[in-house]
Structures are given as structure tokens and as C-alpha cells.
Specification:
Blueprint: H1 2-21, E1 23-39, E2 46-47, E3 49-61, E4 67-83, H2 88-91, E5 97-108, E6 110-114, E7 125-141, E8 147-149, E9 152-164, E10 168-177, E11 182-184, E12 191-203
Antiparallel strand pairs: 1-3, 1-12, 2-4, 3-4, 4-5, 4-6, 5-7, 6-7, 7-9, 8-11, 9-10, 10-12, 11-12
């Protein structure tokens, strides 16, 4: 038991030491996204949609090792256009080309590696990569009565970017939804997951 207590104390002290030396920053984020809804079966065609995102981004980096964690809280508009009129089951009820908007509150938790050993160039340009889960809560959606909407989703994100003059960050990422976002009411198991490309600009104080 004493060994476990000593181990816990050592881990706690290491976490405390890293946290004390970590650099925490935050700032506004603005971006655009291109989203597709990937259905389990190719019964209808789906057109990608352009949306946008905004919010507060955070970054906590540990000096000397280049690793850190990025997070934040964002609003993101996703969705796609569903050509329901291609199938009689929906066309007979008056459905045609239906735009399905999905409005999310997103909280990403991403590991980040920033390369800063550039002999002083990192003060001007520093590349970074990141990845991890992104958790989203559905805040609102279009009133397409043929669809049922999930209350939220979890996606896996990978991306890369560049930090400019230590404050500006430009990044691009791809997110694969791991759980369904929408499903139809008439056909069993006809559900779709989000597939999203994001381009975001962040200013960190």
C-alpha cells in the first residue's frame, strides 16, 4: 500500500510540475467547413454543404518537449443536402431535395505537437499537427420530418497547421463521425455519420 501511495504522490507531483510550467493561451476562432453525410447504404445521392464555425480556442503547451493539448468550445454548422425525391418512399410524401442543417456545440480535446526547434524561425513560423476526439452536442436542426436526429455525436479528428508570429494559427483538419447523426424514420438502419473538412483561423493571446 505504501508503494502505491508513493507512486500516486510521484505522479501527482509530476503533473503539478508540468502544469506549473505549461503555457496556457486562449483566443477567438473563426472557420469554414465542408460537410457530407455518409449513409450506410447508397440509396440516395447526397450533396456536400459549406458551413461555418466560431468560438473560443485554447492551447496548453509544455515547453521544451513540443507537446500539448488544444481544446475550446465552438459553434459549428454542418449538414448536407439529401435528394430524398430520388426514392418513391419519400417522393410519394412530397419530399425532394431537402437541406438538413445541423447546429452543434463542439468541444474538441486534441493532443498537439508543435515543432519549435527551428533556430529562431519558430518566432515567425512553427508547424504543428494534432488529433483526438471531438465531442458535439446538437443545439438545433432543420425541420425535415423524414429524419430523426441524434442528440450529439463523437468524431475523431486529425489535422495540421502553422503558427505565424506566435499568435496567429491557420489549421486544416478532417473529422470522421463515429456515431450516427441522422437516420430516416421509414427505413430501418438507414443512418448517416458526419464527414467534415475544417479550415480555421485562431488568434491566441
Amino acid at each position: 500500500m505504501r508503494k502505491y501511495i508513493l507512486c500516486l504522490a510521484l505522479v501527482a507531483s509530476m503533473i503539478g510540475a508540468f502544469s506549473a510550467s505549461a503555457q496556457f493561451r486562449y483566443g477567438p476562432m473563426l472557420g469554414i467547413d465542408i460537410t457530407n453525410l455518409k449513409f450506410r447504404q447508397d440509396l440516395i445521392t447526397v450533396d456536400k454543404s459549406v458551413g461555418f464555425s466560431t468560438g473560443i480556442a485554447t492551447e496548453m503547451m509544455f515547453p521544451g518537449i513540443g507537446f500539448g493539448v488544444s481544446s475550446g468550445i465552438f459553434y459549428e454548422q454542418r449538414g448536407a443536402t439529401l435528394n430524398l425525391g430520388e426514392k418513391l418512399v419519400w417522393a410519394s410524401q412530397g419530399y425532394g431535395k431537402e437541406r438538413s442543417y445541423l447546429h452543434y456545440i463542439e468541444i474538441p480535446i486534441h493532443l498537439r505537437f508543435k515543432y519549435t526547434r527551428l533556430n529562431g524561425m519558430e518566432d515567425y513560423v512553427a508547424p504543428f499537427v494534432f488529433g483526438g476526439p471531438s465531442f458535439s452536442i446538437l443545439a438545433a436542426h432543420s425541420n425535415v420530418k423524414a429524419l430523426k436526429y441524434a442528440g450529439g455525436e463523437m468524431g475523431l479528428t486529425v489535422g495540421l497547421g502553422v503558427e505565424i508570429f506566435k499568435n496567429w494559427q491557420v489549421q486544416a483538419s478532417r473529422t470522421w463521425g463515429m456515431v450516427y447523426a441522422v437516420k430516416t424514420k421509414l427505413l430501418d438502419d438507414f443512418s448517416a455519420k458526419n464527414r467534415t473538412w475544417d479550415i480555421r483561423v485562431v488568434y491566441l493571446f
